[in-house]
Amino acid sequence: MILLAAQFDAPLSRNTPGPASAALQRAADTLLHEIPDAPTRIEVVYTSPGLAVGWLNRGRREGGKPLAFVQPGAEYTRIVVLDGYLTAGPSELGPRSDHAATLARMSLDDGSLNLDGSFVATMIDLPNAPDALAQSAHVRLRTDPAGSRPIYAAYRQGEDGRLLVGPAPKCFLHDPELRGAVLPASILSMAVNSYLFDELTYWRNTRLLGPARQLDVQGGRCRLSRYWAPVFGRQNAQAVTLDEYEAVLIDSLAGHLRHFQRPAIGLSGGVDSRLMLAAARKTGREVGLVTWSYERDPKLDGDLNAAGALADALGIPTGPINGSARTTHLRWPLDAEKLAEQFERVVFINDGLIGHLGAYADREPLAVEIARHFDVLLIGDQCYRGEEPVNRAEDAVTAIGITPARRVRFPLLRDFAREALPDYEACIERMIQGAEPERHTHPQDLHDRLYWQVRVPRLLTGPRALFRLYMDACSPLLSKRMIELSARLKIEDRVGKALLRQATHAIAPEVMVVPYAATHSRIRWRKLLKREGPMQRRLVELLLDTDSGLFDYVDRAAIEATAYACILAARSQARPNGGPGGGLLAGLMRMGKAWAVRRSGPTQFFLNLVTLNQWFRQFN
């Protein structure tokens, strides 16, 4: 987990502590609370008043710490820090332990590098002049082609300009001027979309660095660019044969597997994970299979039973995690009372970036259990959505879970609404412009490009980031070569993941003897919230916490109406006049608002508001 701090008006004299070192330490101190009982420490590669580079070394992850290499030169010293690993790159690419040294001999400007893997690479050229300032250094940071390892940057320009880079937005808690004011569009996005789209964070000066991003800082100025992007559709339409797809897939999977001793595939009942299983059988590596369900009584046509039937058909031993069983079935039913105690920690761990708490329900103890036996979880994320076809430009946006500004019905206070709605609309427009500068793209191609650019990074920085606190988690289907192949597919081969199904059958026909799951494990929040219990009461308390600051932006009465519409505990706390107080007329108005909220999908909206309120309370 790379950490980097720069104070541009400070000197670069080596091994002298200063403001940059202090910023690095404050960021690390905040991250230490993510796993309080784990042996965690900060390891510093370089420190001076103007620049500090290091990483957070977590004791629970074996062999996963970043690599650093310092290469002295005549005019400058080069520092390379690599978080993660490479599966492709320079011809002399060897074991992971050599990757940072290999990069130090190159330049990230070199187009022939063609880096691939799961990584964040940082290269810093420090002038050897004793009186040089931090702004004289050249810092270049790159994410991998899928943005699979979360990294965030906060930048402030000016006489005391400074930069801070870290693996979580909570790194910037100690510097309000650096991180910036609350971004109005982010509040709307979390409330109505359940996530922050594109590279937004809650703060104006802070952003996620998504897929194939390059951050250059020199002379006190910061430039963000995209060094590569897939071209979906007609401009890049070339026939992809099953033989080509099979060769690239197996090579990509083998490239990831060679960095781990005890790999496991997260096997659902769907297309992507079964495709990985088929490819894994061709690599010759023994790979564990892990399937879990949050339901107490998993459905007969669901993930757990489909995975179990497939393992039985293939003769793969099944059972609890142990040395002999290669397939593990984890019934991980939601413990509502336990979850009630974890809501605040859940929001802290994921920085409030996941609105629908069902995405995180009980995920931490599940990650701990899996990590006891495996050192990596291979997840079947794909770079495009591959569901129903998209035929209109507007649908290209809504299909990745973004509500257009004109449909937003979030109960904002009037003054804040005047700022938030145009801000939200402008962010959507910039996102589309970045994906489709020419505006001549088929809606399906625009949708799939946006899915890679916007949605995939949020999948990888959400629940996947929690797994990485305890083990590694990677997505071999998101290698650069796999993304390039997917972009070349014809629309009819992407819709319904048609070619992926054909490829699975061609690679390993035996894994197709069991039908795919018809339903997937989901927590039934609508039913759960209608029950009476400590979790439901705790949710109401968290939502209506008036000390958080959220109610400086939103209509409290409407939020109460949301609680009343969604959750039994709110109804049980209601007064006889039909609402939580304010007289008969106020109660009738509140019931009307509750009816309006119910039409817009109240359960998810309610959970998003709980996340927002807790984020304000903990982080702002």
Topology overview:
Layout: E1 2-7, H1 19-31, E2 40-47, E3 51-58, E4 67-71, E5 76-88, H2 99-104, E6 116-127, E7 138-143, E8 152-156, E9 162-166, H3 176-179, H4 184-193, E10 206-208, E11 213-218, E12 221-226, H5 242-257, E13 263-266, H6 271-283, E14 288-293, H7 303-314, E15 318-319, E16 327-331, H8 336-349, H9 363-371, E17 376-378, H10 393-398, H11 414-435, H12 443-460, H13 463-467, E18 472-474, H14 480-488, H15 491-494, H16 498-507, H17 525-529, H18 534-543, H19 556-566, H20 568-572, H21 583-599, H22 602-619
Individual helix count? 22
Coarse morphology: globular
Tell me the span between the first and last alpha carbons: 24 Å
Total strand segments: 18
Adjacency order of strands in the biggest sheet: 2-3-1-9-8-10
- Rg value: 25 Å
Helix content: 25-40%
Structural class: alpha/beta
> What is the arithmetic mean of pLDDT?
80
Biggest sheet architecture: 6 strands, antiparallel
Low-confidence stretches: 575-580
Q: What percentage of the residues does DSSP assign to strands (E)?
A: 15-25%
3D structure, described in words:
- The two termini are 24 Å apart.
- The protein is built from 22 helices and 18 strands.
- Strand 8 and strand 9 (162-166) form a beta hairpin.
- Strands 2-3-1-9-8-10 form a six-stranded antiparallel sheet.
- With 620 residues, it is of the alpha/beta class.
- Residues 575-580 have low confidence and may be disordered.
Relevant terms:
single chain, 620 residues, alpha/beta, 6-stranded antiparallel beta sheet, 22 helices, globular
Summarize the structure.
The protein is α/β, with parallel strands linked by helices and 620 residues long. Helices cover 38% and strands 17% of the residues.
